[in-house]
Amino acid sequence: MKSTVAVSPDFSPDKSSRFYLVKWFNNLLKTSFEDVQEMGSGACHCQMMEHILPGSVDLARVRFDAQNEDDCKHNFSLLNEAFNKNGIARRLQVDKLIKGDFKSNFEILKWFKGFYTANVKSGEYDPVKARCSQLISPIEVSPEFVRTKVRLFPEDTGNLPHPYTKKWKDIFDWADRSPIGDHYTYCSSCKSHLSTSSRGLADLRRHVETKKHKKRSGLMNRQVAELLPCSDATLRFIYNRCYSGSAEGEEVSRRFARHKLGMEYPKNITSACQNTPYCLYIYGGVTSGDEETVSVVLVGFFDVESSSHCIRFLEALQTDGTGDQTASLVVETLKKFGLSMENLVAVYFTGHGAASEQIYWQLRELNPNIISLGGLFTIADAACRAGIKELSNQAQEFIVDLHAYYCSSSDGNENLKSIFRSDIKEQSVPFYLNISCHRFCELLTKLLEAWEDLTLYFSTCQDNGKKPKSICSQLKDPKVKATFLFLEQALKSLHSFQKKTQESSRADMLLILEEASSLLSTYTSYFLDPHAAADILKDRDTQILHEKKFHLPSSKLSLGAKTVEDFVKNSAAEALPLLKEEALSFYIALTGCIAEELPLNETVLKTIAMLLNPKSMVTVTEEVVGGLATKLGLCNSPDKVKQLTRDFLQYQLSQKEEGEENVKDGCTVGSPEKNLASVLQDTQPTSVFRRLILILLCFPCPSLDTQQVLTEALQRSTDFSFSESDSFTEDECGISLDSVFHSSSNEDLQVFPRRKKKNACLGQKDVPLEWTHCEVRLTRVDELANEFGHIPGENCISWKQEPCRGNFGWESSLRQKPKARTVFQAGGSTWSKPIQLDKVSKNVHDLLEKTSPGKTSPTRGQQKKAYQDGKGFLLEELVWGKGEGFSWWPGVVRPWILESVPRRGMRRVEWFGDATFSEINAGSLRPFGAFNEYFSKESFDNNVPFYKNAIYEVMELASYRCGKSFASASGDNEKELDLMLDWASKGFLPSGQDGFLPSGFQDPSAVLSSSDSALSDYQPPAKRKCLKNKTNGTVITNKTKLEWNKIKECGKSIKDICLSCGLTDCEVQHPLFEGGLCLNCKERFSETFFRVDPNRNQLYCSVCCSVPNVVRCHVDSCHRGFCKSCVNQLVGPNTFDKLKDVDRWSCYICKPSQCKGDLKLRPNWNVKLQQFFATDSGLEFEPHRIYPSIPANQRRPIRVLSLFDGISTGCQVLKSLGFKIKSYIASEISEDAIVVSMVKHEGEITHVNDIRTITRKHLKEWGPFDLLIGASPCNDLSLVNPQRKGLYDGTGKLFFEFYRILSMLRPSEDDPRPFFWLFENVASMTAHDKKDICRFLECNPVLLNAVDVSPANRPRLFWGNLPGMRRPITPSQDDKLVLQDCLEPGRLARVDKIRTVTTKSNSIRQDKSGSLPVSMNGKDDYLWCTEIEQVFGFPKHYTDVNNMGRSQRQKVLGVSWSIPVIRHLLAPLRDYYECK
């Protein structure tokens, strides 16, 4: 298939100025160029090309920091390649562009702007993320092309506006962005908003010289300079490491240190360490300035309030490197800052060598219970080096000689380069004793891979020296190779452990502890008798290692893997005894080092790991916890042991049920902080168990990289500003927003709005506002007039700002029109009353009338729409309501917009969560204040679609109205929601239920008694949906008002009407019933048709797909519903109420004879439905390339690449169809699924890495391939998931991995080799996601439902180029079509067809009542695993491997394909490939 054709830009003259072009590019690419001549590096051109035509330029190859000619030419070569690939005939004058020629750069930028306009329709693009946050550097212009430089934003002119820019923050640290707009700058020293739109930076320079600023910043600077107890070495270290300015001097460094450490330093650290256990980090040999090194002391502890681990900078010590001095300085530092030695529980060292021991023992004198944890993270390197030293001299000399030859040779052998790389250099000691275990293992692997190539290389080497000959002879010696084969296997456990300590995060600490606890037992099992190994684990007596009587016999000694022993037996059997002696020495040295370096024994490490894991904590015994507490010095008396046991058992019992539920639901283990937050919240501050948990949480965790930890310790939010510019001396008056309405005169103050341009303020003329001499307070008014022209505050109408949209779907419901501007006006207060206030209000009102022609006074008809029937629940009041089939649901009363007068007793309610409306009787509503009575915890916990969103939205609005803040959530929506629910359950204190009533709420009787008063409960109605037709269409404002007989009188038939909204201009025909769908309703239909509730029932109406309140079909194999409006209007009046009384009603699709009136079922609706979803992307593509069938004698076995392979359904289908499979490469990460595939297809499938690690090189090695199949995870695409993240986040973005590999595998147009591919995903995804997938895969999908060939519903979309994909699917003779055919003997199916089987166990239940589909011995029962396998088309016991439980087997089946469907799709390939 051809790629998308690029549209050439319009060649009409572009009159854009160079300033406009630069600004346009800066806004689009988030750059900071000042002139077109600076943009000649080619980097911005490459990114523009990639943005316009995605995939045309590989941004990873672009050199964004290009400064020299070669780098720039490289970028333009990438651009030329992209032009040629897309058929763009544009000549680039590269030499002139690079040198900065103005005309050339100006012309190419204008061309790119036109090219962008012609091809890009969507504005969604993150340029910074696309280039991995790299900056595009401006180039230096060649002298011959230098022009007079005119800045884009001149500093000293008032002709151009100067919005706030981050560059000002670099110059003046106190200059922050103002919340009232970019025309202002906030001074954090003076706490004022400065008007800087006129002169920009000049205004800031003027402000810094004012008395006010000097006074306030000077006071802060004095606070900075005072009481900073850190050493001069600390000041120099922070200054040299973090300061990027140009100012120098002791005062600057001291103020900057205060800026980085915060005003509370060191009181905050001292306070924390007095009340909670802490760990001491000591990083030695850290560079500070020129040739100066310091030892940095940090403090780490667990902050209970934020539930996170904190690291704080304490001091930098300048030492001479000796252990005594360093240890003394560390102890003095702790005493100087007053840190509690009782709370010091652990210490972590790095870079100190022998000095670490002295520091540790001096600290032990102060607190004997301190633990040194540095060894836990360095044990791999130490043990690896200890073992290597015990190798034979021959092996050690070989690797040294090989490295020496690499360093001295000039021919640059590629194998040697890949082995040693540039990070291994010549040193006085053997290099392998100075590199990490991880690096040494990499070296071993590459050496063994290149062994044969190196042997050939040194055999033919032209160098006749002794060293090459010696290396060659050793390469040919099988004992040497066997030694390195043994090393590679023996170091695997150590290597795996080190990778976890280096690459993991705090969330992986459990795995690190568990693996550390097993290291010693792993290596002792290789060479020690089991009883002796147990003694080592218990007592750490390393003498046992050297006693021969405890060693295993030579025949049982492990060489790491059987392949090593086989190699020696086949190549040099006589060397086997010597190799085993060498292996024994290696094991003894390595194991002894592990035993000495491990800070805690195996039992303690396992106990810590279990306590940090909520799943395993419930299995820990009180004796084990008591032993751990005693080891850590917590329990020094029997009373404390009893208290610990009591607290632990109490917590264990309270958490056991919750833990079992989490395990049942498959919850994953998060970070220890999150897992144990509840322990710290539920226990008393004096609890010994609480202290034990705090000790465990303060232990050092990855990553402990020096630079990363220091950056974290110094990246703290500061509570004051630092600026180099605090030395200006001239006095001037500051201009700030605070002083606009202040005057020292006794005369009345006249305020004139600053006139920037015409119509910029309230009116075209400046209107004086007269006030008495008083203090005026500013009140923010978000909207000065409503739809009826009222001034807020007038006639008792009070307004509040609407809440911000949250992340739980607020943008799709209850969305209010954005405020046009924020106006500050003087408001009343307890001060003296202003005179002429009525006049002021009148002037402002008149101005608004002039400037807002669209806002008119309310008509009498509009005023009648308020609810004045005495039934309660007035406008904007929060309520609970209940629809059929749903629990009580939160909503808000909205204005009645369909009738001239609201029907008595009825309310129009907008439901939170999905923004749908209902007309409901006021007697069926309940006040929202009765939260505890109507809130459904079951719906909330079971993730009923939209329910959690609805609760979040209503709580957000209620908390806003009450003025309640949840700032402690720190932006975490889940935490904020928990706080909201807790607030609601306690009665919405302190305001109570009255707090969230709408503004100006009055008792209904008061409203009725005064008909002339303003509508105190009224807020502007929601915006009416305007269903616009094209030029010749009829507009029908709302479906509920349609009268079908009137439509027929106008000459329209039901076929011409959109069945969802009534629009007469239909885009497509309705797939199920006679009638049409307009463009908007078509998109909604495609999104919601397959949307189901937790009971697997269709959530929306099958006719209009827009109303969730439906009557549902009771036929077991059906799931569709029909709303009241559609049934009453299309079938007949009051039909809906009659259907509700019918027992087990069959719908209009299951029983077409019921269709009456205007509801007519299409006879071929099932075909139409498939066609609708096959073409509903709205995109047209070129047909797939058609490959001719291959003669039988020329067919070859098929080669398959399966991505997201699961349990190898594709392989199972191909084998059942008789295909001969030459290779089947499968990418899968689920361990359970991989085990099933390995067992059921033993030796036939090659499993490879995660799809994200597959490269072009891998595909070249494994391929070529004839068939690519895959189905990326659907959980973030399915509309059933309310927390879905969509196609571009979460697991949804894994689709692009399939697309990436498909792009690399597609053959060229001139390649005759047939290549087929298939991609599958869920049918119930959004229309936007579906269109994007179609756009990338360049074809429309086919909808296939497994219910046609199996007993289970499973609608799925398939994209691909397989022959005959769109042919009707028909069952074969072997397909089991009803559930009874799949059941074991003695079991009876209660239904013929079941709903979609997912990974959740409750998906087996069939309806709202939760009935099970099978009956056995008179009792309902779940489907057995063997029966689910039969439903999917698998053989019995297909997943019965590895002792997998029921839930595990259902999980791997729930994400697999249906065998009959895939057989239907792959069967045509028998005409192309060899079959049995």
Mean pLDDT: 75
Estimate the global geometry from the Cα principal axes. Answer: globular
Strand content: 5-15%
Largest sheet descriptor: 7 strands, mixed
Fraction in helix: 25-40%
* Spatial gap, N to C terminus: 32 Å
Structural class: alpha+beta
Q: Compute the number of strand runs.
A: 31
> With helices defined by DSSP (H or I, 4 residues minimum), what is the helix count?
55
Low-confidence stretches: 148-160, 663-669, 717-721, 723-865, 1001-1043
Q: Strand order, biggest sheet?
A: 24-23-22-25-26-28-27
* CA-based gyration radius: 38 Å
Q: Which helices and strands, and how do they pair?
A:
Elements (H helix, E strand, L loop, with lengths): L17 H12 L13 H10 L16 H17 L8 H6 L2 H18 L7 H4 L35 H6 L3 E3 L6 E4 L4 E4 L5 H7 L3 H15 L6 H11 L7 H12 L5 H9 L2 E10 L5 E11 L4 E10 L5 H14 L7 E7 L4 H12 L4 E2 L1 H15 L4 H16 L5 H7 L16 H13 L1 H9 L6 H10 L2 H13 L1 H12 L5 H19 L2 H10 L3 H4 L15 H10 L4 H22 L4 H11 L1 H4 L4 H10 L6 H28 L6 H4 L1 H6 L5 H10 L8 H9 L34 E3 L17 E3 L5 E5 L41 E5 L9 H15 L8 H4 L14 E5 L5 E7 L11 E6 L5 E5 L4 E2 L3 H4 L2 H5 L5 H16 L10 H13 L18 H6 L34 H6 L18 E2 L6 E2 L1 H10 L21 E3 L8 E3 H8 L3 H6 L24 H11 L22 E6 L5 H8 L4 E7 L3 H10 L5 E3 L7 H7 L4 E4 L24 H11 L10 E7 L4 H11 L4 E4 L9 E6 ...
Description:
The chain has 55 helices and 31 strands. The protein is an alpha+beta fold. Strand 5 and strand 6 form a beta hairpin. Helix 17 runs antiparallel to helix 18, helix 19 packs across helix 20 and helix 53 packs parallel to helix 54. The two termini are 32 Å apart.
